Amino acid sequence: MKKITASLGVAILATAVAACGSSAGSGQESGTVTLRVQGMPPATDKPGLAAFEKMVADFEKQNPGIAVEGSSAAYDPLTFSAKLAGGKVEDVIKVPLTEPQGLIARKQVKPLTAELAKWPHYKEFNPQVLRPLSDSGGEVYGVPQSPFAMGLVYNRELFEKAGLDPGKPPATWEEVRAHAKRIAEKTGKAGFVHESKNNQGGWQLTKLTYAFGGEMEKQSGDTWVAAFNAEPTRQALTLLKEMRWTDDSMGDNQLNDQNDVIKRFAAGEIGMYLGTPGTYRLAKMTYGMPNIDAFGIGPLPQAGGNATLTGGDVYMVPKSASAEKTAAAVKWLLFAYAQPQYDTGAAAERAKALAADPNAAVGVPTLPMFNEVRQAQIDEAVKPYVNVKLEHFQPWIEGTPKLQLRAEPPVRAQAVYAVLDSVVQAVLTDRDADVNTLLGKAEADVNAKLAASRQ
User: Which residue range(s) make up the domain with 47?
Assistant: First the structure.
């Protein structure tokens, strides 16, 4: 596995590229291709919407035969497969990084390499960000949006109130436990909160498992089976159980997803949680964190694994799309997601436009989309418009490249996460929960699901 390099230039993308409706969808001239794209941001992301409206206008001006229509539809693991099979999805779909390999294997999405390769800078893509979107033959099926690496988000104000150094977040899980206990004792707030519902309990447990040196799935011959019923995951769950029941450092509310956690964090109720630099935007723009400068993030704490989980959203084209729409979709993907991360002028222009809005966040670090030389140039172009305190992200920027990138489980990850949600919830809500029993049952459930996916 490759090591990663942190970047701040790509961060503009998460705010600027979401889609909204275009008036070009009606009354068009004959021959115009109407491209329906997923990615519309929430109404609270006003800077993103404004930036996108300009981007749509610029794109349509450069491509007069294409009209872009945005969609607010979001990925839902319970309904997505049926919609995809029925041809009831947009021409550009947005899915989490857990899904591409399954979509590729089932031939539900179109290969895009031939169209992507027409872009002169295609070969400068960071191969690490394209690998999860490719098949065994190297055919590429999508373009990523703001690939990320997980870390430990923390409230610098609560650290100070607890007598902890906000410039030095915990590097090990033993230190996380000690910090969480101290925050709870000194401030009365939850020292650490672990997500537990909407598949996010299993997702968070995957990060912990990697940090403890384990894995979630493994190949057995030509098949995939669960691998989490082993010591690393057992140690991670035992740690959570002890923090919850022995230390009483996780608060009383244990049924949370990411939005719940960030909302509580923004309100100053949580000391630490597992997240990315990008959750800064949610804390600021969606939940109005009063003192956003209290946001800090370090690399994912370790317990022998020397690894962190990578992920992000991916834009792909469904198999049902015509050749004409596929070509239009690739033009859109390159214009919206790739070119701004490659072209220094475009990156600077968007950064400047976003920085004019006091509610925007420019310069939040993320993973580089292109090679190191190009990314350094992008970062330099964006630097004058950065309006976040990069020193508060510095522990993540410096520490994350020292860790190994671990992808999410390759087969039916969302189904795995759903099963493990119940395991995490049991550990956090039942003092007498037996970790071994829970993992044994979860292993059997996941293996059944993995077997069913092969039929």
Answer: 9-147+313-402
